[in-house]
Amino acid sequence: MWDYLKLVVYGLVALLAAIAASYARDVAYQVHAILVTLIAVGLFVYSLKKVGEPKVVETGYMDGPVRVGAALTAFWGVVGFLVGTFIAFQLAFPSLNFSWAEGYLNFGRLRPLHTSAVIFAFGGTALITASFYIVQRTSGARLWGGNLGWFVFWGYQIVILLAATGYLLGATHGKEYAEPEWYVDLWLTVVWVAFLLVFLGTLMKRKEPHIYVANWFLLSFIVTVAMLHVVNNLSVPVSIFGSKSVQLFAGVQDAMTQWWYGHNAVGFFLTAGFLGMMYYFVPKQAERPVFSYKLSIIHFWALIFLYIWAGPHHLHYTALPDWASTLGMVFSVILWMPSWGGMINGLMTLSGAWDKLRTDPVIRMMVVSIGFYGMSTFEGPMMSIRAVNSLSHYTDWTIGHVHSGALGWNGMITFGMLYFLVPRLWGRAGLYSNKLVSWHFWLATIGIVLYAASMWVTGILEGLMWREVDAQGFLVNSFADTVAAKFPMYVVRGLGGVMFLSGALIMCYNLWMTVKRAPAAEAAGDAQAAPAE
Asked: Were 127 and a residue from 49, 73, 156, 273 both cysteine, which residue would form a disulfide, CB within 3.0 to 4.6 Å?
């Protein structure tokens, strides 16, 4: 019965999407309708072949989505870093905005593609992968919902596909970190609710009485991102057959809602979720317990209470009332303390195992990621202070801050996770080459340092040049003067990106060879253990 119901649903979706494609009012909507038609037809054919086949009742951990997720995390990372490196050179050498690709591959179209590829494709896939792995191991239970886990995983990949093609074709809200248009937002909402149900359902049927702290962070990330996404993307479509929509909010209310969303996307998507990773994978790789479990609980509650108030610091010196931006600034400064509490907890987990830094490049990568977390969570509150913000805002300093966090913290902890997961998921005794992990570590670390340092220099340079006035009170420098002055640092930034990308490519080769060539594990570890059902 269920097989035939699926066939009906896939058939209806294919039919409706084909009709939508024929009535489409713009190219982006038409391309997306065609893509949905092809996906639905493919699923219809696949399900038709499976009709009548005996159902295999699977037991043990559901690691299928985790395996595919690990592979796609590495893939999306390379895509995001490649696009980012290219647009970095586009800024240094504008001739790379090719006239023949104008309107598709120019900087304005590729920049949101880069940010979404790194944050939502690379980071989001990593978070779903980590969530599915961690919640099963810490609960002693298989993922709840049967194939709902697969729906979440592939449904999210469809979001990435529609968003990425939409950016290149001009379908965008034009809101930072919230660019996808209305129908992609609706589909993401459906997928995210299913994600929440899978995670909660697995926790509810856990065999361990205690809910490990990593799950607290992951659950807060899932719940809060759902709330942020729904409120910030409230919009009315211009037409049911077009990609364009009109935002529900306008003016300063829209700005406030956007940066409530934007900063908490950083706070819960890129911080809380990845802290869940840290609290699981660092102790596992170090083979040491969390330094202070009590501190991890304090870290959790302080972080989720304070972060949600910090967004207005993005709107100093705007139409937003001073009391609101001051409130955001105060909470941002207070936020420094629990953030560093978490950093200290992560680093001190290596107590008694510091010698592993000499011998284990994976733990070295994780430790550096925690260091970048600490640096970014000090720099962020400092930049939120109004006097500092008057210099830093709208400059490349902000870009350097974002990338030291996204590449140094999120990127490095994700690389560590992948190096931990792949041998266990494919039953290998270890990685193919620790020497290649060391190469990756140094290329990535030096690349981030070059990137961040060059942006600090050019950001402060920009800020000082913009505010320089002569004896009569006239501005000394034009905008073009600041652009010319930044050129050397833009080249350094691009080279840093090349190094980071090279490290990611080495990682992909190492992981591929681990699956293909590394010796098999002699005994099943925790990755192969099956919970009794």
From this structure: 273
